[in-house]
């Protein structure tokens, strides 16, 4: 007890000693202020305390913010091999990175990572969208990706050809199940789920994706997910984004509708949205002249659409109706065809499904909207997304939320309707009115002709590869993505008898406003492995050794791309700067003119906690895909689902004598199986 009393006395004595020194310091500080003679001594202490406290708070916040920034900007952890001892630098970083920093500080530095110092200073150019052109080739843009604005402008918005097939991409529904066959009900649940996602987005309730549960990825692309439309121009398009939109635009059998999503101050419930969709499906009136094919303008070349928009849609009811479409939260297409995976006819059913989502009838999707929700007559659904505003993983994040909400959280009644009751006083959808003259209808017909020729040329093939999946690949101690990419190289060589420049998209969202970087997967190491596989004299051990070298090289390239040390975006910036400076570079012309005859992308499943595929394997998604990049090349998208399924989406053009999507699909299947055989997993299991 005596010890405790003595300890308390010591604490109290020290407290008053420190307090007196602090008060004396504040008094001395405030005494030099010019207003000190007008304020009492007590008032001076209050003012001084506030100033010192505020300064200390700012200093601590600044230090914490910058320490956190630089810790999360360090990417050395990504280059550690899983089978080696962790380096001291990574161990130190991992010990300091995951601490519980204040949430306000973490939000303030969610994505301000600097672009690497390897970027040439001449590439730090200002915004390229100025009508007068760049003002200075050395304007710095610190703490941000210097590529994103130029990438959006010159790769997407300045393209004058059709964005349908060439740019837009699609996402598919569940592979094996349809929660309800009622078109209106499926639309009701999915539209409600999308609007709930928008509400979370507006309220900043969607957590940023985290690498290793520690490193936040930039979320800037989510900003234009809703209320956004691509507006055509003669020289370049622009993205029109509204801060708020309370309606959606719906298309059904040649009719356009404006459907309010709020009534009596609240968001419509799923059954109420179903009620509105049922009213649209019951409309048997004839389309107005030119209305049925109007959306073909968004599917054809951009210049005719831009001129027609300026000439025919700049005033009157045409402008009002076009505004209702372009300023909608998103676009809904109620398709009058039936699409789904048919186990009795898997190839044709999936190919037809993919083509319908990619281009439809060329006049029943508004390809300029940030995304189209497409609901088919039998209840199957999907998305078609415009590419300039964001990349596929961002749309995929939304789609995962919708698919996980639809059959489980929202659900349906026994007869297939949305849960709940219709609203007795809900005003119906508003039919949009158009006055489209014959001159404009001629432009629409011309755009439709261009779009149909492009759509008919698409050779689409979708493969649910279920021979094995991520589970067995991991037993090979190989990266699943590296395994698949090397298989694609082997398949392509067998398909065409030659190698080609290959594009694999990698996210650069470790940087502020980061978009993508290219992983050039056709490496010397991969070519050596493919040649060995084509050589009957090469032993299994030699092939396996070359495979591991190729896989490790691929992983290194992927890490470099993610951390900003890829080469293609740097070359892209140098090319733009050279054009601005009027300097011709034979090297840049040569390296940037070669086509990507094999363009690939993995669609990641980002929210694994939303899908319990072990207990509900029937709820696997189909992934998504895109059109071919080169006229004589292939586009390949793939998604790794659970432990035992990989879906491939292959596209090419019928007009090319060199390509055949179904033939390439067979070669992919054979390449995957042949590479797996090198590891002799069955023999190892038997030996055990």
Automatic annotation (TrEMBL):
<feature type="active site" description="Proton acceptor">
    <location>
        <position position="387"/>
    </location>
</feature>
<keyword id="KW-0276">Fatty acid metabolism</keyword>
<comment type="similarity">
    <text>Belongs to the carnitine/choline acetyltransferase family.</text>
</comment>
<keyword id="KW-0012">Acyltransferase</keyword>
<dbReference type="GO" id="GO:0009437">
    <property type="term" value="P:carnitine metabolic process"/>
</dbReference>
<keyword id="KW-0812">Transmembrane</keyword>
<dbReference type="InterPro" id="IPR023213">
    <property type="entry name" value="CAT-like_dom_sf"/>
</dbReference>
<feature type="domain" description="Choline/carnitine acyltransferase">
    <location>
        <begin position="144"/>
        <end position="669"/>
    </location>
</feature>
<feature type="transmembrane region" description="Helical">
    <location>
        <begin position="46"/>
        <end position="64"/>
    </location>
</feature>
<dbReference type="GO" id="GO:0006631">
    <property type="term" value="P:fatty acid metabolic process"/>
</dbReference>
<comment type="pathway">
    <text>Lipid metabolism; fatty acid beta-oxidation.</text>
</comment>
<keyword id="KW-0808">Transferase</keyword>
<keyword id="KW-0496">Mitochondrion</keyword>
<dbReference type="GO" id="GO:0004095">
    <property type="term" value="F:carnitine O-palmitoyltransferase activity"/>
</dbReference>
<dbReference type="InterPro" id="IPR042231">
    <property type="entry name" value="Cho/carn_acyl_trans_2"/>
</dbReference>
<dbReference type="Pfam" id="PF00755">
    <property type="entry name" value="Carn_acyltransf"/>
</dbReference>
<dbReference type="InterPro" id="IPR039551">
    <property type="entry name" value="Cho/carn_acyl_trans"/>
</dbReference>
<feature type="region of interest" description="Disordered">
    <location>
        <begin position="120"/>
        <end position="141"/>
    </location>
</feature>
<keyword id="KW-0472">Membrane</keyword>
<keyword id="KW-0443">Lipid metabolism</keyword>
<dbReference type="InterPro" id="IPR000542">
    <property type="entry name" value="Carn_acyl_trans"/>
</dbReference>
<keyword id="KW-1133">Transmembrane helix</keyword>
<protein>
    <recommendedName>
        <fullName>carnitine O-palmitoyltransferase</fullName>
        <ecNumber>2.3.1.21</ecNumber>
    </recommendedName>
</protein>
<dbReference type="GO" id="GO:0005741">
    <property type="term" value="C:mitochondrial outer membrane"/>
</dbReference>
<keyword id="KW-0813">Transport</keyword>
